[in-house]
Write a structure and sequence with these properties.
single chain; 141 residues; mainly alpha; elongated
Length: 141
Amino acid sequence: MREAILETLAKLKQPSAVNELVACLRSEDAALRNEAIETLKHISFDLSETIKILLSDPDADVRIFAINILESRCEPDVESWLIDVIERDENLNVCATAADLLCEVGTEAAVDPLMRLKNRFASDAYIQFASDLALKRIRET
C-alpha cells in the first residue's frame, strides 16, 4: 500500500507531492525514510530547488538524505553542490557522505576542496580515506 502511495506521489509531478515525500525524510520510520529517498531519486523532473533547500537543512540527517538522493540523479549541479557541502558543512558525517559521492562525480574542480576537507578533518580516518579515494579517481579520469 505504502509503495503505491509513494509511486503515485512521484508520478504527480507537483510541488505538493514532492513536499510530502520530503516530509517523510523526517519520519521516525526508517523504512519510510528509505522509501522516500528511493522515490525522490527516481522522480523524472527537476528537483534542484528542493535539493538546495535540503542541503541547507538544520538537521544533519536530512542533509545526508539529500546527498543520498543526488546519488542517482542527473542534476547538472551535483558536483558544485557537493563541493559546497564539503567546504561549508561542519558535520563530519555530512562531509563524509559528500566525499563518497565525489568519488563518482568529482572532476578537477573538486581537488582543492577535497584537500581542504582533509586538512579540516585531519584527525578523522574516514574523511582521509574517502577524500583520498575521490582524489585518486579524479586523477585517473
